[in-house]
Amino acid sequence: MVNDVILAHRVAERFIQASAPIIVKEVNDKVEVSGPYDKMKDLIPYLRGKFEYRGNDRTWWAPKAKMTPIKMKNLQKKVDEVNGKFGPDPVKVEEPAEEKAARLEEAKKLISKAIHMRVPGLIFSPIGIDGAQLTGALTDLRVSINMSGGDYGPEFSKFLAQKIKPVEFEKLLDAIEDQGRLVAKAQADLSNIIPRNFQNLKINVGTNNGSYLFVVAGKTYDFKDEIKKLVPVTFNGQGSFWWAPIHQVKEAQVKKLIEYLEGEERALAEKWKADKVERAPTERAKKPNRRGDHCLTCGAWVDAGEGYLVDHWDNDEDELVYKVVHSDPSVCAEVKEMARIRHEKARTKREAQSNLYKLCAKPEYYVQGTGLKPPGEQIWIDKTALGYGGGTWVVIEPGENYFWYVKNNGADGDDWSHNNVTTGGAGAIGYRLPMTDEAKVLIEVAKE
User: Of the candidates 74, 229, 347, 355, which lies 20 to 30 Å from 331 by C-alpha distance?
Assistant: First the structure.
């Protein structure tokens, strides 16, 4: 049933693409060009050398910073010429005001429904007041996303209420639940097989944080041909790993890959044994430390004259080298514990920031108006990308009965029409709500 739905989506995509024009759009820091191959083949010679090709969604892209106004004008002119060969775009019919209002109200309800969905491997998160972002492996949902009025991306797709087609969006939600069932089944099938860490090969086989991508990472170059033969994966050049949507990977394929890597791991161990190479630090190899360096065990700095040197096999250089370690193992244990505490505090802070956003960023707390200046004490929650229109803060009103949650919304590409709080830039989105014990705790943990 689920596979039939996905197959139907892919067949529908062929028909849709055949009549679609070539589109030029700006996505974050990129300029992207995409369209049906019958049209793109006339444009590809122009793009080659100026743009890079992304195969997973058949899109040509270039950094936005390199696309000057003249280059953009020339690109659009060339695209218009190619699109013109296939006839003019259909005439747009203005939607009646009453129908538009009804559609917008229905779209808002569907976005709210989507945000509260719990589907393995696919997550809807709110954007502003009337928008949402879908995160996950989205290539199989491309047609449904485009037909529903979404802005498609292979891992992130955005939806705005004013652009959504409710009927098609409901079909998209059905397709999402279908894919979620496939993801859940794949996760269950593979749970007893992965993750696996091949220490000698320095290769990890597992999933990403959201468990919706199957990933093979590490020093895979010598084994790439066999990996591609055994599992239908794609190479990510930026992250240097192989990946595939987990629901597209079969249990039998992963078992064969694990068996292959286990064999290579054993063969390498036998080679090291035959060469009589000691790969771990040993008491026999201790030497005085006459230079400062980072400890091999915990990574902390060890001054010259402290600790000692041990022999260590460097797999990258394929040779025996000397590394510094602390003379007292308890120092390494203390350093590792402090690092664990720092990471735990950072994780707790991130969770508090996320929960505070979920508590505050609701339509019922949005304050209508423009140029608002919330009174009271300002507390920074997140200064990330502050210089680029980002950042979050709260303002506690005098008396501490109410507070404002303010999210900067002034970056290029943001929808500034919802900004109600004045800043030194394009503005921010502010929510006003009662101060509760829960809010106090979240603010205290989440603040900078």
Answer: 347
